[in-house]
Amino acid sequence: MDRLLFITTLIAIALILTVLISLRRAHIRAEYSVSWLAAAVILLVLAQAPGLLGRFASWVGIEDLPTALLFLVTGVFLAVFYRFSIIISHLRDANIALAQRVAILEFRLENVEDGRL
Amino acid sequence: MTHTAPVHPLLEDGRALILVPAYNEEQAIGPLIDEVYSLFGKIPILIIDDGSHDSTAAIAKGRGARVMRLPHHLGLGGALQAGYRLAFELGFEFVVRIDGDGQHDPAFVTAMLDAVSRPGVQMAIGSRFLHTGGGYTSVSRGLGIRLFRTFLRPILGKPVLDPTSGYVAVNREALEVFSRSFPLEYPEIEALVVLRRRAFQFVEVPVSIRPRLAGRSTITALKSVYYIVHVMLGVLVNILIFDRRRWR
After folding, report:
1. Cβ contact (<8 Å) for A107 and B184?
2. Nearest to B89 among A102, A104, A111 (CB)
């Protein structure tokens, strides 16, 4: 269990560092980094506070602490992925509307120049 | 230009538009435009070039059609909606959609316009199953059509023989709806549900569906399964969220 918590700590720290470096290099926008940082901090806190993990495990009815940790990690990342699916859907809608508007304006401009409108 | 078919008054006076979505159809688009012009003369025809990588747009322009080029590939629904938006903004009262691969015989445009200009009808669907000898379709598509007929019957409240047909004519009421809200992928069936939920009426018109003029269909067996699942999910979601805008 100690080794699992140690590895989880390393993963959480690596995730936080990766996100911070990406932010600094402008590879990720601040608003989209919040979900990842929150997920990493949750993992870090639970890995560093086994008592808290134990209380969570008993609350959800899981006796085995590693299984409880896995359950929690899965839940956290599912929430993050779901949030990004919503963001991607909105961006795709906006992208399509924008592309359509560009095409319509370009069409109108060309036809005004050709004297057809 | 001399033409071989009587021109429908709606086309002649510029109230109707022929809309042609096309993606990488450089071999088929030229002959299709020539065919339309030879049938009806120089009528309004708008090609929506959905981000083709080939010469589709250049060939269409060269044949005298008006071309709207999308900045990148949006897929059939996105391309069609762009065309419907432009047609609505330009004030057209009727739009007939035929595909850029030449499968839809433009000789039936007149019958489609007759049907959609009837009072109380907002949309006409070209049906290969109402036309003698017009039923060209692949085996997998035929099976899909039967499945969708059964699935759609209770939802639409009436039977539809050719629900996957892309040979469609709409009046300005339906054009207004489609310009605001149109399914983005595999739009034919979901579009029927969109209109039905607004109590609009459609009729089926006998048309002939031909093999593609050129090129190959990109539909594979796996895509067919995805298509069926996607469309059914889209229809169910459309029913569940009626009146909430899902597409822009």
Report:
1. no
2. A104
